[in-house]
Amino acid sequence: MIFTKGLAKTLETYESWWAGELDRPILPVVLTGVDPGREPPKHRFEHQKSYNDINISPEELVDSVDYDMQCLEFIGDAYPYMNTSFVGAGGFAAMLGAKTKFDGSIWFYVDNELPIEDIHFEYDENNFWLKRIKSIMEIAQQRWGDSVVISMPDLGGVFDILASFRGTQNLLFDLYDSPDEVKRVVDEIKVLWHRCYNELTEFMTAGYYTDWSGILSAKRSYMMQSDFCYMLGREMFDEFVLPELADTCAFLDRGCFHLDGVGQIPFVDSLINIAKVDLIQWIPGDGPHAAGDWFDLYCKILDAGIHLQLVYDDGTKNFDKVISHYGTGKRIVRSSQYYPISKRDEALEFLSRYGVD
Q1: Which CA distances in Å does 41 have to 57, 96, 141, 154?
Q2: Bridge partners for 339 per DSSP
Q3: What angle do CA 41, 43, 44 make, to 5 degrees?
Q4: CATH code, 305
Q5: Residue 272 and residue 270: Cα distance in Å, rounded?
Q6: Cβ proximity of 70 and 38 under 8 Å
Q7: Could you list the pLDDT tens digit for every one of the 357 residues in the chain?
Q8: Rounded Cα–Cα distance for residues 322 and 295 (Å)
Q9: Is 239 a domain residue?
Q10: Residue 30's beta-bridge partner residues?
Q11: Which of 24, 106, 282, 321 has the lowest tally of Cβ within 10 angstroms?
């Protein structure tokens, strides 16, 4: 892989950004189509499909990731990392005993959805999926040392994990019918989630933390989420979801939240003032304003001293508009932008526009 800046210097830049000392946005840019100079591996990496295929060994999976990284050049604030989100969105559900199915993505379910009062969780160190991800991360660590960052897997949000066992509709009724039982089970999952996070950090690149967001940190960080809360009002969010998020923010050094769609905007004040998240990642979802004008939301987040990640797949136009409107890129990070190697000059021009080496 081509990465001339090096991890140490890249981490220094991110830490300056986290501290509010960097007067520009974080802009990771990746060039694709580099000649890897080697034959393709036996199994080409297909993200969640490769992970869910137990016939692909951990060694073969890591080799396939290695091959794909050798086809890339990392410039700007990009760096090589193994994005272990291939465990599926909410992979901790499988580590707690849920079954998996793959239909383009990994989904989690149980054959029999027990009543909420009968649901109890225990940590199983011999769980197949827990052992599989640990093995993959350990092999990656041995292969790359400190030249590639190994991310924290996508463990998922506690309520989303619970919904895999209880069923979303059932869980919604439980909030009314058995609120204390819901809180009990949420607390059980939270404690085990924290334990799993602690264990998996032992298999990550020492001194480098990231997750599926790609945001680098020298301190413990994670992108929390709750797709389930999209169906809740502010009052129920504050009662049921927010306490766990606040506890996990306190558990981490840097808590981040995946704000997924306009239905979650009402929770921003709670996230900022009660959970005290350090970063909000905004994904607007589908609709006429999917890529555009959310300036009031951006200003609320940034004016509160919270960092903001913008996830765009439409080039630079809307990102440029946001920076122009707000007047600075400080505390803003853009999702990774990909250019073919033939457009390297265009990528460099974009970076230079914002003072990125």
Answers
A1: 13, 32, 19, 25
A2: 31
A3: 80
A4: 3.20.20
A5: 5
A6: yes
A7: 899 999 999 999 999 999 999 999 999 999 999 999 999 999 999 999 999 999 999 999 999 999 999 999 999 999 999 999 999 999 999 999 999 999 999 999 999 999 999 999 999 999 999 999 999 999 999 999 999 999 999 999 999 999 999 999 999 999 999 999 999 999 999 999 999 999 999 999 999 999 999 999 999 999 999 999 999 999 999 999 999 999 999 999 999 999 998 999 999 999 999 989 999 999 887 665 655 678 899 999 999 999 999 987 666 777 888 888 888 999 999 999 999 999 999 999 999 999 998
A8: 7
A9: yes
A10: 74, 338
A11: 321
Count of Cβ atoms closer than 10 Å to residue 176 Cβ:
9
Amino acid at position 166, single letter: R
Judge whether 327 lies within some domain: yes
- In Å, how far are 43, 56, 68, 131 from 59, measured between CA atoms? 11, 8, 15, 14
The residue among 241, 279, 286 whose CA lies nearest residue 261 is 286
70 inside domain? no
241 belongs to a structural domain: yes
Judged by DSSP in three states, 37 sits in coil
Going by their DSSP bridges, the two strands 99-102 and 106-109 should be labelled as antiparallel
